[in-house]
Amino acid sequence: DGFFVRVKLSVATVASADEIAVGIRKIVAFDTSAITSTATNPDFACLNIDNGQVNIISVINQGTASTVDTTQDVADAGTITLEVRVSESGFVKFLVNGVAPTVDVTNFRFDSGDDLMPYVAVVADAAGDPGVILLEWESGLLTERGLDGVLDLVN
């Protein structure tokens, strides 16, 4: 079955946020010092807040990471909802505040047989603590989440 992770969070100081990632990754030992590093985190797809800018970062089979600006931003003391969905066939869909970004990233697909898990990770800049507060976390099967927008994942 397809599944998802949805996280609503607030960020007190976006300039202190180097990486705030909400996504899906292959189950391997996790390098928390660089959450978007392909060297130790070989397969993942996430929405990542970097100094207020929301990017999509994805990598498959330890290849080169793809970073796409969603054109969405979060301001200091802002609240944002980030959601990543994976269809039964492995295709990934990203939602920011319940809406798919206007950039085209519909071709990312996890390999069949990959063991995957949802995750949230925060890495602060040297400037200090970004003050991230997780307000909501929801993950589970897409059938439990609802069918809004899931049909376009079938390829």
Q: How many individual β-strands?
A: 9
Order of helices and strands: EEEEEEEEEH
Percent strand equals over 45%
Q: pLDDT below 50 for ≥5 consecutive residues: which ranges?
A: none
Strands side by side in the biggest sheet: 5-4-3-2-8
Could you write a compact summary of the structure shown?
The chain has 155 residues and is an all-beta fold. It has one helix at 142-145; strands at residues 3-11, 17-26, 44-50, 53-59, 66-73, 78-86, 92-96, 116-124, 132-141.
SSE map:
Elements: E1 3-11, E2 17-26, E3 44-50, E4 53-59, E5 66-73, E6 78-86, E7 92-96, E8 116-124, E9 132-141, H1 142-145
Characterization of this structure:
The protein is mainly beta and 155 residues long. Helix content is 3%, strand content 48%. It has 1 helix and 9 strands, in the order E-E-E-E-E-E-E-E-E-H. The strands form 2 sheets. It has a 5-stranded antiparallel β-sheet, with no helix packed on it. A 4-stranded antiparallel β-sheet has the order 7-6-1-9. The protein is globular. The model has no long low-confidence stretch (mean pLDDT 85).
